[in-house]
Amino acid sequence: xxxxxxxxxxxxxxxxxxxxxxxxxxxxxxxxxxxxxxxxxxxxxxxxxxxxxxxxxxxxxxxxxxxxxxxxxxxxxxxxxxxxxxxxxxxxxxxxxxxxxxxxxxxxxxxxxxxxxxxxxxxxxxxxxxxxxxxxxxxxxxxxxxxxxxxxxxxxxxxxxxxxxxxxxxxxxxxxxxxxxx
Length: 182
Prior knowledge:
- The protein has eight helices and no strands.
- The chain has helices spanning 13-36, 41-57, 59-62, 71-91, 110-125, 129-140, 145-152, 156-173.
């Protein structure tokens, strides 16, 4: 019988040989590939299937004279497929789904930032000129307490107290800060 001759309706000799290979060597192939795939059962099953497809495509390897068993050939093919699959995974970036990775940086929305800037500007306008001058120098221009005191011509302790009371006033005016007040 040739490879294309039907034994039963719908099956060929090659299909029977492939089924026999699966029964006889499938467990050994799966065990080897499971170890080589670091326990990934799905990948190991896919590689077993690919190994058997290669055997089906190369019947000359299965019927070669001088081989007591085709298992060494199958195991070699399976091992090479696993190595190729591992190299392919390393060569391309990892796949990601729709979920956000835990290490992803969260970036603020520009619209929210712009709205917050407008809120702060309006809140600063409600402060007395003395408190506003201290806040602008210390918090917006980055001046130290000593530099602000020298610029405004007031003692450093006054700069500190004005900054404290200015921030308290801002907390009352700005939305979302009322919980901080005690």
